[in-house]
Specification:
alpha/beta; Cytosolic phospholipase A2 catalytic domain; YjjU-like; PNPLA_dom; Acyl_Trfase/lysoPLipase; Putative patatin/cPLA2 family phospholipase
Amino acid sequence: MDFVHGDRDVLDVLRARRASGSRPGRRKDKLRVALVVEGGGMRGVYAGGMVSALESLGLRDSFDEVYGTSAGAFSAVALAVGKGSKAGAVYYEDLASRNFINYRRALTGRGPLINLDYLVEHVLEKAKPLDYELLAGSDIPVRTVATRLDTGAAEELSGLTCADDWRAALRATSCVPFLCGPAVSLLGAQWIDGSVAEPIAIERALEREATHVLVLLSRAPTEKSPKGGEHPLMSVVARGLDPVVAEALRRRAEKHASAMQLLTGKGLLALRPTVDCGVNGLTTNIPRLRRAEETGAAAVHALFAA
């Protein structure tokens, strides 16, 4: 299976925990298992499908913590609050809309290309309400990563206890420079998309002493890795940014490659979509997004059936 890469021992640990009924915070083993979810804008539908499948297979309680960057943070949150079944569907049911991605709005100066207010204030409040109190007290902590504007470094947004802080954190981790409007204020700093400085939080999970890590990736084996961003527009965007942020964005491909190299280590397993469904960071084609969700879910089912 070319869409699976790394140490299959991760599967054995997840299966064993499921079979024993092991729950977060009440483990009998001495292991620490993390789930790391890559972002990628609308590419996140692949990982959303994977998260949906993990939940349907009864594997939610097998993880001790979840790391999410950019779009990956929303799938991480969905799993933590027991709403993983909608982690992929939200893309074609709610986000494949001009309310969310609108080129005309951006070209006419009426607003940003990507409207995070619509996502956080409409989708997560009305269409698919997010229980922030449940999120703050989840037995599986969600560790959201964003890029600090003044340093260009990635940091974990921690100490989030109220709904307003979580709303700001979800905006911050997915605030793509220029495409989503101004940086987001939180915890006394300004923040932009976490993928700018840390595309995949594998090293962060290891630094927190994870013994086993399952990584959900948003590109099929046949797709090329990013070269500075999720969309051709990003190469143009970089020219108009603060030099610190522009440099972080230019180094994104290098950081992505470094993260992928970690997957040769013990206790690390990565899962990709089985096929390329033609989805990029700004895709709003509903049939393609549906296929991408199904593809992500199929990868998980194939992995655990093997």
